[in-house]
Design a protein that fits this description.
The complex is a heterodimer. By secondary structure, chain A is of the alpha+beta class. Chain A has helices spanning 2-6, 58-75, 86-102; strands at residues 24-33, 36-37, 41-42, 108-119, 122-130, 134-135. By secondary structure, chain B is mainly alpha-helical. Classes of the chains: A alpha+beta, B mainly alpha.
Chain lengths: 136, 262
Protein backbone atom coordinates (compact mmCIF):
# COMPACT_ATOMS: atom_id res chain seq x y z
CA UNK A 1 0.00 0.00 0.00
CA UNK A 2 2.91 2.35 0.78
CA UNK A 3 4.10 1.96 -2.80
CA UNK A 4 0.59 2.67 -4.01
CA UNK A 5 0.55 5.91 -2.02
CA UNK A 6 3.88 6.75 -3.66
CA UNK A 7 1.91 7.34 -6.84
CA UNK A 8 0.34 10.36 -5.09
CA UNK A 9 3.52 11.59 -3.41
CA UNK A 10 3.09 15.15 -4.68
CA UNK A 11 0.32 15.57 -2.10
CA UNK A 12 2.98 15.62 0.62
CA UNK A 13 5.12 18.77 0.31
CA UNK A 14 8.81 17.92 -0.10
CA UNK A 15 11.29 20.74 -0.45
CA UNK A 16 14.73 19.19 -0.03
CA UNK A 17 15.87 19.75 -3.61
CA UNK A 18 19.29 18.70 -4.83
CA UNK A 19 20.43 17.80 -1.32
CA UNK A 20 23.17 15.51 -2.57
CA UNK A 21 24.84 15.48 -5.94
CA UNK A 22 25.31 11.79 -6.70
CA UNK A 23 25.56 9.36 -9.59
CA UNK A 24 24.34 10.47 -12.94
CA UNK A 25 23.73 7.79 -15.59
CA UNK A 26 24.57 8.01 -19.28
CA UNK A 27 22.98 5.64 -21.78
CA UNK A 28 24.77 4.09 -24.74
CA UNK A 29 23.26 1.86 -27.41
CA UNK A 30 24.84 -0.51 -29.86
CA UNK A 31 22.60 -1.91 -32.59
CA UNK A 32 23.10 -4.90 -34.82
CA UNK A 33 22.32 -4.81 -38.51
CA UNK A 34 23.53 -7.24 -41.20
CA UNK A 35 24.92 -9.56 -38.55
CA UNK A 36 27.37 -7.16 -36.90
CA UNK A 37 27.17 -4.71 -34.03
CA UNK A 38 27.97 -1.09 -34.75
CA UNK A 39 29.80 1.25 -32.35
CA UNK A 40 28.41 2.32 -28.95
CA UNK A 41 26.49 5.52 -29.42
CA UNK A 42 25.36 7.88 -26.69
CA UNK A 43 21.61 8.46 -26.41
CA UNK A 44 19.48 11.07 -24.73
CA UNK A 45 21.43 14.03 -26.02
CA UNK A 46 19.64 17.09 -24.61
CA UNK A 47 17.80 19.24 -27.15
CA UNK A 48 18.84 22.82 -27.92
CA UNK A 49 17.10 25.41 -25.79
CA UNK A 50 15.14 28.46 -26.95
CA UNK A 51 13.89 31.52 -25.07
CA UNK A 52 10.23 30.86 -25.96
CA UNK A 53 10.42 27.54 -24.11
CA UNK A 54 9.99 29.43 -20.87
CA UNK A 55 6.25 28.90 -21.25
CA UNK A 56 5.85 25.65 -23.20
CA UNK A 57 8.82 23.36 -23.50
CA UNK A 58 7.72 19.95 -24.85
CA UNK A 59 11.15 19.01 -26.21
CA UNK A 60 12.89 19.76 -22.95
CA UNK A 61 10.20 18.02 -20.90
CA UNK A 62 10.30 14.95 -23.13
CA UNK A 63 14.04 14.81 -22.59
CA UNK A 64 13.54 15.03 -18.80
CA UNK A 65 10.94 12.25 -18.99
CA UNK A 66 13.24 10.00 -21.00
CA UNK A 67 16.10 10.68 -18.64
CA UNK A 68 13.86 9.89 -15.66
CA UNK A 69 13.28 6.39 -17.08
CA UNK A 70 17.03 5.85 -16.91
CA UNK A 71 17.29 7.32 -13.41
CA UNK A 72 14.40 5.20 -12.09
CA UNK A 73 16.11 2.11 -13.46
CA UNK A 74 19.28 2.95 -11.56
CA UNK A 75 17.42 3.82 -8.37
CA UNK A 76 15.48 0.55 -8.18
CA UNK A 77 17.97 -2.23 -7.36
CA UNK A 78 15.50 -4.91 -8.52
CA UNK A 79 15.04 -3.50 -12.01
CA UNK A 80 18.46 -4.81 -13.06
CA UNK A 81 17.60 -8.37 -12.07
CA UNK A 82 13.90 -8.58 -12.75
CA UNK A 83 12.75 -8.07 -16.33
CA UNK A 84 9.13 -7.60 -15.26
CA UNK A 85 9.64 -4.42 -13.29
CA UNK A 86 8.10 -1.22 -14.65
CA UNK A 87 11.55 0.39 -14.59
CA UNK A 88 13.08 -2.33 -16.78
CA UNK A 89 10.18 -2.43 -19.23
CA UNK A 90 10.18 1.37 -19.54
CA UNK A 91 13.91 1.35 -20.18
CA UNK A 92 13.59 -1.34 -22.87
CA UNK A 93 10.86 0.75 -24.56
CA UNK A 94 13.18 3.75 -24.43
CA UNK A 95 16.28 2.00 -25.80
CA UNK A 96 14.28 0.41 -28.61
CA UNK A 97 12.92 3.77 -29.76
CA UNK A 98 16.36 5.39 -29.46
CA UNK A 99 17.98 2.50 -31.35
CA UNK A 100 15.47 2.78 -34.18
CA UNK A 101 16.13 6.50 -34.32
CA UNK A 102 19.90 5.96 -34.55
CA UNK A 103 19.72 2.99 -36.90
CA UNK A 104 16.34 2.27 -38.56
CA UNK A 105 17.72 -0.99 -40.03
CA UNK A 106 18.77 -2.38 -36.64
CA UNK A 107 17.39 -5.80 -35.67
CA UNK A 108 18.95 -6.27 -32.25
CA UNK A 109 20.48 -4.00 -29.66
CA UNK A 110 22.47 -3.88 -26.49
CA UNK A 111 22.56 -1.00 -24.10
CA UNK A 112 25.23 0.12 -21.69
CA UNK A 113 24.86 2.38 -18.68
CA UNK A 114 27.81 4.42 -17.51
CA UNK A 115 27.68 6.37 -14.25
CA UNK A 116 29.20 9.81 -13.90
CA UNK A 117 30.35 9.89 -10.29
CA UNK A 118 31.91 12.75 -8.33
CA UNK A 119 35.16 11.61 -6.73
CA UNK A 120 37.86 13.79 -5.17
CA UNK A 121 36.68 16.97 -6.91
CA UNK A 122 36.62 15.20 -10.28
CA UNK A 123 33.93 13.44 -12.26
CA UNK A 124 34.71 9.82 -13.07
CA UNK A 125 32.90 7.55 -15.51
CA UNK A 126 32.23 4.04 -14.25
CA UNK A 127 30.64 1.20 -16.25
CA UNK A 128 27.41 0.22 -14.50
CA UNK A 129 26.05 -2.53 -16.73
CA UNK A 130 25.79 -3.92 -20.23
CA UNK A 131 22.50 -5.52 -21.17
CA UNK A 132 21.97 -8.81 -22.96
CA UNK A 133 20.82 -8.73 -26.58
CA UNK A 134 17.34 -7.35 -27.11
CA UNK A 135 15.29 -7.85 -30.26
CA UNK A 136 13.94 -4.62 -31.72
CA UNK B 1 -4.00 44.81 -0.01
CA UNK B 2 -7.34 43.20 -0.84
CA UNK B 3 -7.78 39.59 0.22
CA UNK B 4 -10.09 38.79 -2.70
CA UNK B 5 -7.75 40.38 -5.25
CA UNK B 6 -4.73 38.38 -4.02
CA UNK B 7 -6.74 35.16 -3.85
CA UNK B 8 -8.11 35.65 -7.36
CA UNK B 9 -4.69 36.63 -8.72
CA UNK B 10 -3.30 33.36 -7.38
CA UNK B 11 -6.06 31.40 -9.12
CA UNK B 12 -5.44 33.28 -12.41
CA UNK B 13 -1.72 32.45 -12.38
CA UNK B 14 -2.52 28.86 -11.40
CA UNK B 15 -5.00 28.56 -14.29
CA UNK B 16 -2.48 29.85 -16.84
CA UNK B 17 0.24 27.59 -15.41
CA UNK B 18 -2.02 24.55 -15.54
CA UNK B 19 -3.10 25.28 -19.13
CA UNK B 20 0.54 25.59 -20.27
CA UNK B 21 1.47 22.37 -18.46
CA UNK B 22 -1.42 20.45 -20.02
CA UNK B 23 -0.59 21.72 -23.52
CA UNK B 24 2.97 20.51 -23.00
CA UNK B 25 1.76 17.04 -21.96
CA UNK B 26 -0.66 16.91 -24.91
CA UNK B 27 2.20 17.57 -27.32
CA UNK B 28 4.47 15.07 -25.57
CA UNK B 29 1.80 12.38 -25.48
CA UNK B 30 1.84 12.04 -29.27
CA UNK B 31 5.59 11.41 -29.26
CA UNK B 32 5.28 9.05 -26.32
CA UNK B 33 2.77 6.92 -28.18
CA UNK B 34 4.85 6.94 -31.34
CA UNK B 35 8.04 6.00 -29.49
CA UNK B 36 6.33 3.57 -27.09
CA UNK B 37 7.52 5.50 -24.03
CA UNK B 38 5.85 5.09 -20.62
CA UNK B 39 3.65 2.37 -22.08
CA UNK B 40 0.75 1.77 -19.70
CA UNK B 41 1.14 -2.01 -20.12
CA UNK B 42 4.51 -1.67 -18.33
CA UNK B 43 2.81 -0.36 -15.19
CA UNK B 44 1.30 -3.61 -13.87
CA UNK B 45 4.30 -4.15 -11.59
CA UNK B 46 3.72 -0.73 -9.99
CA UNK B 47 -0.04 -1.04 -9.76
CA UNK B 48 -0.01 -4.53 -8.26
CA UNK B 49 0.97 -2.87 -4.97
CA UNK B 50 -2.40 -1.10 -4.96
CA UNK B 51 -5.77 -2.66 -4.04
CA UNK B 52 -7.17 -4.44 -7.09
CA UNK B 53 -10.04 -2.03 -7.74
CA UNK B 54 -7.63 0.93 -7.64
CA UNK B 55 -5.16 -0.82 -9.94
CA UNK B 56 -7.97 -1.45 -12.40
CA UNK B 57 -9.18 2.15 -12.15
CA UNK B 58 -5.68 3.57 -12.62
CA UNK B 59 -5.01 1.35 -15.63
CA UNK B 60 -8.24 2.51 -17.26
CA UNK B 61 -7.89 6.23 -16.71
CA UNK B 62 -4.36 6.45 -18.04
CA UNK B 63 -4.95 4.56 -21.27
CA UNK B 64 -4.05 6.93 -24.15
CA UNK B 65 -7.63 7.64 -25.20
CA UNK B 66 -8.93 8.25 -21.70
CA UNK B 67 -5.85 10.25 -20.75
CA UNK B 68 -6.39 12.65 -23.66
CA UNK B 69 -9.90 13.24 -22.34
CA UNK B 70 -8.43 13.89 -18.88
CA UNK B 71 -5.97 16.41 -20.34
CA UNK B 72 -8.67 18.24 -22.29
CA UNK B 73 -10.90 18.27 -19.18
CA UNK B 74 -7.97 19.66 -17.22
CA UNK B 75 -7.57 22.51 -19.74
CA UNK B 76 -11.32 23.13 -19.79
CA UNK B 77 -11.44 23.35 -15.98
CA UNK B 78 -8.47 25.74 -15.92
CA UNK B 79 -10.18 27.99 -18.49
CA UNK B 80 -13.38 27.80 -16.44
CA UNK B 81 -11.39 28.87 -13.37
CA UNK B 82 -10.39 32.08 -15.16
CA UNK B 83 -14.05 32.96 -15.55
CA UNK B 84 -15.44 31.59 -12.32
CA UNK B 85 -13.94 30.83 -8.94
CA UNK B 86 -15.70 27.80 -7.49
CA UNK B 87 -14.91 24.80 -5.33
CA UNK B 88 -16.51 22.51 -7.92
CA UNK B 89 -14.01 23.71 -10.53
CA UNK B 90 -10.96 23.56 -8.27
CA UNK B 91 -11.63 20.08 -6.85
CA UNK B 92 -11.81 18.30 -10.24
CA UNK B 93 -8.81 20.37 -11.34
CA UNK B 94 -6.83 18.89 -8.44
CA UNK B 95 -8.05 15.38 -9.32
CA UNK B 96 -7.10 15.68 -12.99
CA UNK B 97 -3.73 17.10 -11.92
CA UNK B 98 -3.17 14.00 -9.78
CA UNK B 99 -4.14 11.73 -12.70
CA UNK B 100 -1.58 13.50 -14.90
CA UNK B 101 1.07 12.80 -12.27
CA UNK B 102 -0.16 9.22 -11.96
CA UNK B 103 0.39 8.79 -15.72
CA UNK B 104 4.08 9.48 -15.04
CA UNK B 105 4.21 7.19 -11.99
CA UNK B 106 3.60 9.87 -9.40
CA UNK B 107 5.32 12.96 -10.65
CA UNK B 108 5.77 14.56 -14.02
CA UNK B 109 8.22 17.28 -13.12
CA UNK B 110 9.35 16.85 -9.50
CA UNK B 111 9.47 20.09 -7.53
CA UNK B 112 7.17 21.97 -9.86
CA UNK B 113 4.47 19.30 -9.36
CA UNK B 114 4.84 19.56 -5.60
CA UNK B 115 4.25 23.33 -5.72
CA UNK B 116 1.30 23.04 -8.11
CA UNK B 117 -0.29 20.33 -5.94
CA UNK B 118 0.33 22.37 -2.78
CA UNK B 119 -1.30 25.48 -4.27
CA UNK B 120 -4.20 23.46 -5.66
CA UNK B 121 -4.92 21.67 -2.37
CA UNK B 122 -4.83 25.00 -0.49
CA UNK B 123 -7.22 26.58 -2.97
CA UNK B 124 -9.55 23.55 -2.97
CA UNK B 125 -9.74 23.48 0.83
CA UNK B 126 -10.20 27.23 1.21
CA UNK B 127 -12.71 27.60 -1.65
CA UNK B 128 -15.09 25.20 0.10
CA UNK B 129 -16.11 28.22 2.23
CA UNK B 130 -15.68 30.82 -0.46
CA UNK B 131 -17.83 33.38 1.37
CA UNK B 132 -15.77 33.13 4.50
CA UNK B 133 -12.79 35.55 4.39
CA UNK B 134 -11.10 33.57 7.17
CA UNK B 135 -11.07 30.48 4.94
CA UNK B 136 -9.52 32.39 2.01
CA UNK B 137 -6.93 33.89 4.35
CA UNK B 138 -5.97 30.46 5.67
CA UNK B 139 -5.58 29.21 2.08
CA UNK B 140 -3.23 32.07 1.20
CA UNK B 141 -1.29 31.74 4.47
CA UNK B 142 -0.79 28.02 3.83
CA UNK B 143 0.57 28.73 0.34
CA UNK B 144 2.82 31.47 1.69
CA UNK B 145 4.20 29.36 4.54
CA UNK B 146 4.83 26.32 2.32
CA UNK B 147 6.53 28.40 -0.35
CA UNK B 148 8.69 30.14 2.24
CA UNK B 149 9.57 26.74 3.71
CA UNK B 150 10.44 25.45 0.26
CA UNK B 151 13.24 28.03 -0.02
CA UNK B 152 14.40 27.60 3.57
CA UNK B 153 14.47 23.77 3.53
CA UNK B 154 16.16 23.68 0.12
CA UNK B 155 18.91 25.91 1.57
CA UNK B 156 19.09 24.18 4.96
CA UNK B 157 19.59 20.65 3.53
CA UNK B 158 22.40 21.96 1.32
CA UNK B 159 24.22 24.05 3.90
CA UNK B 160 24.62 20.90 6.05
CA UNK B 161 26.58 19.19 3.28
CA UNK B 162 30.35 19.66 3.07
CA UNK B 163 30.26 19.38 -0.71
CA UNK B 164 27.83 22.30 -0.96
CA UNK B 165 29.72 24.45 1.54
CA UNK B 166 32.91 24.12 -0.47
CA UNK B 167 31.13 24.92 -3.71
CA UNK B 168 32.10 21.53 -5.09
CA UNK B 169 28.50 20.29 -5.35
CA UNK B 170 27.46 23.18 -7.58
CA UNK B 171 30.56 22.75 -9.72
CA UNK B 172 29.78 19.06 -10.23
CA UNK B 173 26.10 19.84 -10.73
CA UNK B 174 27.03 22.15 -13.60
CA UNK B 175 29.39 19.62 -15.13
CA UNK B 176 27.22 16.47 -15.01
CA UNK B 177 25.96 15.76 -18.52
CA UNK B 178 22.48 14.89 -17.29
CA UNK B 179 21.88 18.40 -15.97
CA UNK B 180 22.42 19.87 -19.40
CA UNK B 181 23.93 23.15 -18.24
CA UNK B 182 24.71 25.68 -20.96
CA UNK B 183 28.25 25.66 -22.35
CA UNK B 184 28.93 29.13 -20.93
CA UNK B 185 28.20 28.03 -17.35
CA UNK B 186 30.09 24.76 -17.81
CA UNK B 187 33.13 26.86 -18.68
CA UNK B 188 32.64 28.95 -15.53
CA UNK B 189 32.30 25.84 -13.33
CA UNK B 190 36.03 25.35 -12.61
CA UNK B 191 36.40 28.99 -11.46
CA UNK B 192 36.34 28.77 -7.67
CA UNK B 193 35.42 32.44 -6.91
CA UNK B 194 32.45 32.24 -9.30
CA UNK B 195 31.22 28.94 -7.82
CA UNK B 196 31.59 30.17 -4.22
CA UNK B 197 29.77 33.40 -5.05
CA UNK B 198 26.89 31.50 -6.66
CA UNK B 199 26.70 28.89 -3.88
CA UNK B 200 26.82 31.34 -0.99
CA UNK B 201 24.53 33.76 -2.78
CA UNK B 202 22.01 30.93 -3.04
CA UNK B 203 22.41 30.02 0.66
CA UNK B 204 21.99 33.66 1.66
CA UNK B 205 18.80 33.93 -0.37
CA UNK B 206 17.26 30.59 0.66
CA UNK B 207 18.10 30.59 4.36
CA UNK B 208 17.18 34.23 4.99
CA UNK B 209 13.99 34.12 2.95
CA UNK B 210 11.60 33.42 5.90
CA UNK B 211 12.95 36.44 7.81
CA UNK B 212 12.17 38.82 4.96
CA UNK B 213 8.45 38.31 5.55
CA UNK B 214 8.85 40.62 8.54
CA UNK B 215 9.68 43.55 6.28
CA UNK B 216 7.67 43.96 3.09
CA UNK B 217 10.28 46.17 1.39
CA UNK B 218 13.06 43.62 1.89
CA UNK B 219 10.63 40.88 0.89
CA UNK B 220 9.94 42.67 -2.43
CA UNK B 221 13.68 42.67 -3.16
CA UNK B 222 13.90 38.96 -2.25
CA UNK B 223 10.94 38.13 -4.49
CA UNK B 224 12.67 39.85 -7.41
CA UNK B 225 15.82 37.87 -6.59
CA UNK B 226 13.65 34.73 -6.33
CA UNK B 227 12.18 35.30 -9.76
CA UNK B 228 15.66 35.94 -11.17
CA UNK B 229 16.88 32.75 -9.45
CA UNK B 230 14.20 30.61 -11.11
CA UNK B 231 14.70 32.40 -14.42
CA UNK B 232 18.43 31.65 -14.24
CA UNK B 233 17.61 28.00 -13.57
CA UNK B 234 15.64 28.06 -16.80
CA UNK B 235 18.52 29.69 -18.68
CA UNK B 236 21.19 27.38 -17.22
CA UNK B 237 19.34 24.06 -16.86
CA UNK B 238 16.14 24.51 -18.90
CA UNK B 239 13.87 24.17 -15.84
CA UNK B 240 11.03 26.25 -17.27
CA UNK B 241 8.25 24.96 -15.05
CA UNK B 242 9.85 26.19 -11.85
CA UNK B 243 9.52 29.83 -12.94
CA UNK B 244 5.73 30.05 -12.97
CA UNK B 245 5.26 27.44 -10.21
CA UNK B 246 7.01 29.52 -7.58
CA UNK B 247 5.93 32.90 -8.96
CA UNK B 248 2.35 31.74 -8.46
CA UNK B 249 2.95 31.70 -4.68
CA UNK B 250 4.41 35.22 -4.50
CA UNK B 251 1.09 37.11 -4.12
CA UNK B 252 0.28 34.91 -1.10
CA UNK B 253 3.70 35.59 0.46
CA UNK B 254 3.21 39.33 -0.05
CA UNK B 255 -0.23 39.08 1.54
CA UNK B 256 1.12 37.24 4.58
CA UNK B 257 3.90 39.79 4.99
CA UNK B 258 1.50 42.72 4.65
CA UNK B 259 -0.75 41.29 7.36
CA UNK B 260 2.07 40.48 9.74
CA UNK B 261 3.15 44.12 9.64
CA UNK B 262 -0.31 45.49 10.37
Amino acid sequence: MTSCLQLFRTLIPKWSFFEAVGHSPILYIQSKSQGAYGPWRQCLVPPKRHAYELFVNPHGQLHFLKYRILQSFIQNPNSNRNEHTTEYLNLVGLVKSEALHLNPQGQELRFKIVLQTPENFKIKKIDYMISKEIRI
Amino acid sequence: MSLHFIYRLTTYILAVHVILQAIEVLIIQRTMLKQDLYNVSNYSDQFKKCPQFLAQLFTTIITPHFFSVILLTHIFLAVALIFKLHFLILLPLLLTHLVINLRFLGSYNGGSDHVTTMVLTALVASSFYLDNPYSLKMGLYYIAIQSTLSYFIAGYVKIKQKSWLSGNALRIFLLLEANNATRFFKKLAPMKPFILLMTWGMFFFEILFPLTILNINILMIFLIIGFAFHFMNFIIFGLNRFVISWTMTYPAILYLSYNIQI
